[in-house]
Amino acid sequence: MAEYNRVSECVGLITLRNPPVNALSAAVRQGIVDTVQRALSDPNVKSVVICGQNGIFCGGADIKEFRSNMTGPPLIPMIHAIESANKPVVAAIEGSALGGGLELALGCHYRIAHSKARLGLPEVSLGLLPAAGGSQRLPRLIGVPAALNLITTGRHVTAAEALQLGIVDQVTDHNTVAAAVKFALSVAGRSLDPRRISTHPCPQQPDLDALFEEVMQKVRQSARGAIAPIACVQAVRAAATLPYAQGMERERELMATLFTSGQARALQYCFFAERAVGRWRMPSGARWDTSKPRPVHKAAVIGLGTMGRGITVALAQTGLSVIAVETQEKQLMEAKQAISGMLERGAKGRGVAPALDGVIYSQNIQAVADVDLVIEAVFEDIALKTKVFQQLSAVCKPGTLLCTNTSALDVDQLASETPNPELVVGMHFFAPAHVMKLLEVVYGPRSSPQAVATAMQLGKKMGKASVAVGNCRGFVGNRMLKPYIEEAFFLLEEGATPELVDQALEEFGFPMGVFRMSDLSGLDVGWRVRKGDGLVEPGTASGRSARIRQGRRYSPLGDLLCEEGRFGQKTGRGWYQYDKPGSRVARFDPWLHSFLGAYRAQHGLVARRIDHQEVLERCLYALINEGFHILDDGIAAGPEDIDVIYVSGYGWPRHRGGPMFYANMVGLAKVLERLEHYQQLHPEVPHLQPSSLLRRLVASGSPPIHKWGEAIKKLHSQL
Ligand SMILES: CCCCCCCCCCCCC/C=C/C(=O)SCCNC(=O)CCNC(=O)[C@H](O)C(C)(C)COP(=O)(O)OP(=O)(O)OC[C@H]1O[C@@H](n2cnc3c(N)ncnc32)[C@H](O)[C@@H]1OP(=O)(O)O
């Protein structure tokens, strides 16, 4: 897995061979150990170059090996042997040098990178730290502040930034290996002492304590309970304050804690889950690898409200030409200005030219006649959307894919109103659409695999975590959110406060608890939906019967707040109060607390003490339970789909892996037992009734999450 050749007579060229990313598997490590030894013992070899095959240096340690007993030569002595070699070793970096890949390069005496290469120590995003000496060498090479930034965020830097920071010695636009070989020849015979990073002291840094205190505080705040970023700071502190050998010892100790942690398992699960959702499959048997997407060169967006504007920006930023349609002239002008502003800001951030010319604005739907794909983003009204779809069917060239950005309406119903239902899919974006990572691609029974493949590919092009899901009320994300929000309302009725519920959820790792989130997105959104469902009853009826609607427990608390004009941040009042409409800082509101007291008195409810554990169990297990229903119904193909949706679109803390992974970690039997417990206490709440899939999985011995797919198939075939 590492090939050895002698080139230019006296350069030993070592090529890592482990597709697709030349990860440092046991075989690759063994290959490096053997070939380095061979090069060093060959008297004809004056210097050595290490590169990777297929235009990528190395994607780091093999993450798949972390969950098994690791065999083969360990990384640290392997890198140390390279650093202490008596012949210069040059890393030729193309593509990526990440994690252990960059640590290997830092062990080399020189680093030459291609201008398109990207480098980084992303271990923190896998719940780890750069524990092959990276946390000790990088600060010695580029200084403590820059190393802290790279190691605690895991961000990848371009070759140009790497050169500026001093991580690489040279950047080339040409053949990197050839440049590295030439360079290796030029430095043969030079003293290597100054090039051995581990022997350097860290560059002097004034006020080291204050710097670490400040960074630690920042990291704690943004980590939301994740432990790896904190360990990363501690490791860099060891580099800055201890001799190398002791620093390495500290790096090892910190890694030992992280390596076996649940958080590392969760984060590594997320890494693979994000890739697994790209291998989508539909209940019909259609799959990602047998369905060819159509090429999309030109797209259109219909309706330029908040969502339509964001979608236009996201499409234009991928380099597509976009026709943006809005029938009202004033709104079209406003949208044009807003979209141009978003494109300019986005381009500035990425250091590229804004794609302003990529968008053509029109008031006339006829303008979309020759596009390959349309995304409709008009107001959430089935009659209006149906009309737009009928117009589009008449206007567009044959084969144009028609996508709806609905978050709640029935994609099948819309499809049935068009002559070609196989060309219709949902593309459920999240606001702001050009920023949020998540995209639910919603297929109905008649959507063609090609339509799904095209929408999935477009989502990927836009940089979205795209997940294919079946059509049902709320799709996956919002369907699971409903019981979560309802439980939070019930907890308020029983004695909790918005502050208590939010604190429990934020300590769990959500960026915002359910009530702060609801204030941000607007209480009127859910009110409108509940009204549409016939659940909202005006008046002051009291007692238990007033809180049973359509045969199940119902809390009118949200409706009552809306009746008071409290729509959240936008009105300056909601579950909290704000300094003025539009302000973001949520403050305790005495009005709300006396309102809750009066409400409980009116309904004969006696407030009891509710603790964080109950908040978490009732809100999260109700949500998870709905996830099991979704799997049982075949709406999501596997737990990874649900988890990616929750981590990338709903603020579920990544270091907890997603709701289904969390259930797996807690133990399915425990989740079942707690749901049964709460269901007995609240028999009128159907979403606490454990899903039959959860019961069946527990009965079949609670298989680990990677075996659920198999278990579900087996359980379904037994039905
Ligand atoms: C008891 C206590 C003991 C304690 C001590 C134990 C010590 C043991 C450890 C020693 C120290 C280790 C220190 C080093 C750690 C690391 O290096 S961790 C890994 C760090 N690297 C990364 O995080 C990079 C991850 N990969 C990427 O970011 C991207 O894949 C890429 C390299 C930028 C390429 O992107 P792209 O071209 O878009 O391809 P992808 O689709 O993402 O990937 C293609 C397939 O490759 C798989 N893959 C990628 N990287 C790895 C990897 N590092 N290991 C294994 N597999 C990898 C990826 O999953 C894709 O495959 P599929 O999932 O099958 O699609």
TrEMBL record:
GO biological process entries: fatty acid beta-oxidation
GO molecular function: (3S)-3-hydroxyacyl-CoA dehydrogenase (NAD+) activity; delta(3)-delta(2)-enoyl-CoA isomerase activity; enoyl-CoA hydratase activity; NAD+ binding
Name of protein: Peroxisomal bifunctional enzyme
Keyword Repressor found: no
Subcellular location: Peroxisome
Main location: other
Keyword Metal-binding attributed: no
Catalysis: reaction(s): (3E,5Z)-octadienoyl-CoA = (2E,5Z)-octadienoyl-CoA; (2S,3S)-3-hydroxy-2-methylbutanoyl-CoA = (2E)-2-methylbut-2-enoyl-CoA + H2O; (3E,5Z)-tetradecadienoyl-CoA = (2E,5Z)-tetradecadienoyl-CoA; a 4-saturated-(3S)-3-hydroxyacyl-CoA = a (3E)-enoyl-CoA + H2O
Residue stretches in coiled coil: none
Assembly information from the UniProt record: Monomer.
EC number per UniProt: 1.1.1.35, 4.2.1.17, 5.3.3.8
Signal peptide feature range: none
GO cellular component, one term: peroxisome
Limits of the 3-hydroxyacyl-CoA dehydrogenase C-terminal domain: 474-578, 615-701
Location of the 3-hydroxyacyl-CoA dehydrogenase NAD binding domain: 298-471
Family designation: Belongs to the enoyl-CoA hydratase/isomerase family. In the C-terminal section; belongs to the 3-hydroxyacyl-CoA dehydrogenase family.
